[in-house]
Amino acid sequence: MNNKTAILIFANSAEFEAIQKPFQSSKVLFDSLNAQTLKIVKKTGFPYFLSSEKTQIGSNFGERFTNAIQSIYDKGYEAVITIGNDTPHLQTDHILKAVQQLQQNDIVLGPSKDGGFYLMALKQSLFNAEIFLKLPWQTSRLHQSISKLVVPKHIALSYLERLTDIDTILDAKTIIESFRSISKHIKQLLQHYISVEKKIIRSFILSIQTPIQTLLLNKGSPLLIHI
């Protein structure tokens, strides 16, 4: 099985992530995360393929992800391990454990705390494009939906440890405050991101408070409101 297993890095370019992600400095952060992900994958020694917005085919996430997986099977591989680029705590060991568990299981999931997964290892014999397209991609119900599908069919499913991916400022805080190891550079970028976001939030709050305070302090003439 090992010589018929490939890794699929399903991750957009840093430029594209900068448009999609709702926070500051995301291009610099995802440049680093993309580089780290590639380094981690190369250490496994397994063949790998990168699927970004430049090569993905489909009108939505489900279609693009399904087509990317199918393209790996079309190359002759019997198992695919898919990962993204937004999980700073992902290590080479997670991928190797998935390969090991796939020897005795049909599917291996690395669940993320938002209800999705940061890693999925899947044998070709279990891949069904029609079912994949119907899954609630990019929602908190994804992991649960997959479990509900495989359990009644007695499909062997195993799990890796749960990790946090980056979507919000709260995710960044969780990652920094955890006891797991993280690269110094990425940690600094996350700290910078949190600092910038806090300043934006404070400025927004002050912009709302100022007119309210003016209204409360105005005890003389009534304010003229132009409609």
Question: Secondary-structure blueprint of this entry?
Answer:
Layout: E1 5-10, H1 14-20, H2 26-44, E2 48-51, H3 61-73, E3 79-83, H4 92-101, E4 107-111, E5 117-123, H5 129-134, H6 142-150, E6 157-159, H7 169-177, H8 184-217
Helix pairs in contact: 1-2, 2-4, 2-8, 7-8
Descriptive notes:
Helices cover 47% and strands 13% of the residues. It has 227 residues and is of the alpha/beta class. Strands 2-1-3-5-4-6 form a 6-stranded mixed beta sheet, with helices on both faces. A hairpin with a 5-residue loop joins β4 and β5. The C terminus is likely disordered.
| Oligomer class | single chain
Text of the CATH class? Alpha Beta
Strand segment count: 6
Class of secondary structure makeup? alpha/beta
Strand content: 5-15%
How many helices? The count is 8
Shape-level CATH architecture: Alpha-Beta Complex
Biggest sheet features: 6 strands, mixed
Radius of gyration: 22 Å
Gist of the model:
The chain is α/β, with parallel strands linked by helices and 227 residues long.
Keywords:
six-stranded mixed β-sheet; Spore Coat Polysaccharide Biosynthesis Protein SpsA, Chain A; about 230 residues; single chain; alpha/beta; 6 strands; globular; about 45% helix; 8 helices; disordered C terminus
